[in-house]
Structure formats: structure tokens, C-alpha cells
Write a structure and sequence with these properties.
Number of helices: 11
CATH superfamily of the largest domain: P-loop containing nucleotide triphosphate hydrolases
Bound molecules: iron/sulfur cluster
Number of domains: 2
Radius of gyration: 22 Å
Strand order of the largest sheet: 3-8-9-2-10-1-11-12-13
Shape: elongated
CATH architecture of the largest domain: 3-Layer(aba) Sandwich
CATH class of the largest domain: Alpha Beta
Largest sheet: 9 strands, mixed
Structural class: alpha/beta
Helix content: 25-40%
Order of helices and strands: EHEHEEHEEHEEEHEHEHEHEHHH
Distance between the termini: 11 Å
């Protein structure tokens, strides 16, 4: 089983579209599982035509704890209110009230409460599940609740579920969140290869360098896909020079193509919406195989 993560320092560069199409192409010759590791804004299943209600199974997940107050013991000392760094407690009618959002489960209020009126309890703040796409492979996904923390833990659980559901898979494709934060690191660790998707803009290039710095830290081989490369030849050249200098393979340069947008609107991967692009994605798959086998 080869595990590949597709990431992008910057959001909106076409990462999920590329993951979905790569999945469709690889699935023609291999058993694969696609994993949506963007648990704050999951949309890989949608790109593959699968709505939440179409999933075979969802299960609740608790990745965080929250403060629970026993107001019968509270002596209104206000210490919890004054010491909550996250400003998650309101003061109402001389008693503390936990706000709907904001509690990070840090436990400070429990520590400072002189009358043991607070305890931390686990909360179901996320869900993970899987469903079969019409292309014959499963997509595993996770969703963190609004305002909840613990995205890295949810990614860890989503990947664990993918390893169970897709235990016979020859390829696991992880679609990471944008950026270089905790959920991205949780998507990248213990992989065989990383594909960094970028676009030729100053922010795209800057975020690409930061993302690859993180990947290098984990000693994972990586390659670059430049999406919409023809929109800015100067920055495409900068990215190519950077890749040469750092011995990173340019796996593909994808031209700007409006059909990427229409494919998203119609909830089909771009290689299905525009079969002319199939050869491009077949070449990407071949380049990746050369890199990891
Ligand atoms: S657990 Fe931490 S974040 Fe939550 S209310 Fe207590 S002090 Fe605030
Ligand atoms: S620290 Fe404890 S006793 Fe003091 S206001 Fe908060 S809950 Fe009440």
C-alpha cells in the first residue's frame, strides 16, 4: 500500500479537483481509497459526486473536552471567569455560564475552582464516515463541528478508518487541508509521497515553499504540480527554478481551463467532465509511480 498526500500551502489552487481525478485514473488499474483530510471544510466527496446523505456510515467522535459546571457547589468567586484565557465563560446573574463556542478544554477553570464545581467532560465534536463513489472506490471523510478544536485528532481518526476500510488498497490518497497547521501535519506524517499543488502567484509560491519546508522536516519525498501555469509565466519560471534548485520534480503543469469550474458545479471529477484531460492525469500518475516504486 502506497500512501500519498496531496497538499497546497494556499487554498483554492485545485487540490481536491486534482485528488479526485487522480483517484479516478488510478482506480482504473489499482484498488484505491480517497481520504478527505480537510476536516474543517471537507469537500472531496462532493467533488466525487457524493453528498453527506449518500455515505454508508457516519460515526460520532469526541476529540475534545469541555467544562461542565455544577452550580449547586458554586460560591460565585468568579475565579473561573477571570482565568479563562479563551474567554469562554460569561458571567450572568452572579454565576458562570459556558458560552456555546470557545471552550478549548484546557482545564484551567477546573484547577482554579475552590469548590470543585467544575469538571471536564468529553464532547462529541466531530464525525467520520465513508461512502462508495460511482467510480468504484471509497471516500473516507471527517467533519469537525463549528467552532470546535482538535482537527489534527480528527484527521488521525479519518486516516485510521481509511486504513481499515481500504486495507486492500494499493493506493491511499489523502486530500489535505490548505496551510501548514496541525491537520496538514496529521495528513502528511507516515506517507510515501507528497504532491504539492500550487499556482503561479506570489502567495501561491510563498505558501508552497512553507509547505515543502514542513514536508522536508518529515523526510518525505515530494513533487510539484503547477495549476493554471499559463496565467503567469514569470512565476511559473520561479517555481520551476525553485524545484530545480531543491531537486523536486515538476509532476505536471496544468493550463488554466474553465472546465475545472464546470466540473465542480456538476459534482464530477475534471477527467470525467472533460475526458481530453485524461492523458494529462495518466501522465501525472505515471510520474508519481516512477517516484515511489
Ligand atoms: S476548560 Fe479552559 S477554555 Fe474551557 S471554560 Fe475552562 S478555562 Fe475556559
Ligand atoms: S471558580 Fe468555581 S466557585 Fe468560583 S465562580 Fe467558578 S464555578 Fe463558581
Amino acid at each position: 500500500m502506497k500512501k500519498i498526500t496531496i497538499l497546497s500551502g494556499k487554498g483554492g489552487v485545485g487540490k481536491s479537483s486534482i485528488t479526485a481525478s487522480l483517484g479516478v485514473i488510478l482506480s482504473k488499474n489499482y484498488k484505491i481509497t480517497c481520504v478527505d483530510c480537510d476536516v474543517d471544510a471537507s469537500n472531496l466527496a462532493l467533488v466525487l459526486g457524493l453528498k453527506e446523505k449518500d455515505f454508508e456510515k457516519w460515526e460520532k467522535l469526541a476529540t475534545n473536552q469541555k467544562a461542565e459546571f455544577d452550580l449547586s457547589k458554586c460560591i460565585s468567586c468568579k475565579k473561573c471567569f477571570e482565568n479563562c484565557y479563551f474567554n469562554a465563560i460569561e458571567w450572568k446573574e452572579d454565576k458562570p455560564v459556558l458560552k456555546e463556542f470557545g471552550c478549548e478544554g484546557c482545564g484551567v477553570c477546573e484547577l482554579v475552582c475552590p469548590s470543585r464545581a467544575i469538571k471536564l467532560t468529553s464532547v462529541d465534536n466531530a464525525k467520520i464516515g465513508y461512502g462508495k463513489t460511482k467510480y468504484g472506490f471509497n471516500v473516507v471523510s471527517g467533519q469537525l463541528g463549528i467552532g470546535e478544536s482538535g482537527s489534527g485528532k480528527v484527521v488521525f481518526e479519518v486516516r485510521k478508518l481509511a486504513a481499515e476500510i481500504g486495507k486492500d488498497s494499493e493506493f491511499i490518497l489523502n486530500d489535505a487541508a490548505a496551510g501548514i497547521g496541525c491537520p496538514v501535519i496529521a495528513s502528511v506524517v507516515a506517507n510515501d509521497y507528497v504532491i504539492a499543488v500550487t499556482e503561479p502567484t506570489p502567495s501561491g509560491f510563498s505558501d508552497l515553499k512553507r509547505a515543502l519546508q514542513m514536508v522536508t522536516h518529515f523526510n518525505i519525498n515530494s513533487g510539484i504540480i503547477i495549476n493554471k501555469f499559463d496565467l503567469n509565466p514569470d512565476y511559473t519560471k520561479k517555481i520551476e527554478d525553485f524545484s530545480k534548485k531543491n531537486n523536486l520534480k515538476i509532476l505536471a503543469k496544468i493550463p488554466y481551463d474553465k472546465s475545472f469550474l464546470y466540473a465542480l458545479v456538476n459534482m464530477v471529477p475534471i477527467v470525467v467532465y472533460n475526458p481530453k484531460l485524461e492523458i494529462l492525469f495518466r501522465n501525472i500518475a505515471e510520474e508519481i509511480k516512477k517516484e515511489i516504486f
